[in-house]
Amino acid sequence: MTQIKTAERNNKIKELAKNGKTATEISEIIGIKRKRVLQLLRSFRIKPKRDLHPLQIRSEKAQNIINELKNGTKQSDIARKYNVTRQYVSQIKYKLESK
Fold first, then answer.
1. Which CATH class is domain 54-97?
2. Higher pLDDT residue, 8 or 97?
3. Which of 27, 64, 69, 94 could form a disulfide with 34 if both were Cys (CB 3.0 to 4.6 A apart)?
4. Where exactly are the structural domains of the chain?
5. How far apart, in whole angstroms, are the C-alpha atoms of residue 51 and residue 34?
6. pLDDT at 96 over 60
7. 44, burial (CB in 10 Å: exposed 0-12, middle 13-18, buried 19+)
8. How far is Cα 7 from Cα 1, in angstroms, rounded to an integer?
9. pLDDT tens column, 18-76
10. What's the CA gap between 32 and 1, in Å, rounded?
């Protein structure tokens, strides 16, 4: 990547961060790894907006897991199906029961 393209990319990253995008969102938009975005933002002395935990934002995957739990599917089967850990499924179940 040339110096000009790198500078343009870095300016775009700064702009996105200042507009409230998370490091994950920026990495998806720019097409580089999240870790690299965080390194660059740190060097610019910009704090990105924090990513929300999937349990807080009620992602589509979490909703599907909740539906599977309500249907009585085993946690280990759900974890295999959605490629997550059993602990993640258990956390969702705990959040569901605490409501």
1. mainly alpha
2. 8
3. 27
4. 3-44, 54-97
5. 11
6. yes
7. middle
8. 10
9. 999 989 889 989 999 989 999 999 999 999 888 766 555 467 888 888 899 999 999 99
10. 13
Query: Could you say which DSSP state residue 74 is in?
Result: -
Find the length of the chain.
Answer: 99
Cα 96 to Cα 44: distance, rounded to the nearest angstrom: 40
Cα 14 to Cα 44: distance, rounded to the nearest angstrom: 8
pLDDT at residue 78 greater than cutoff 80: yes
Q: Are 39 and 17 in contact (CB under 8 A)?
A: no
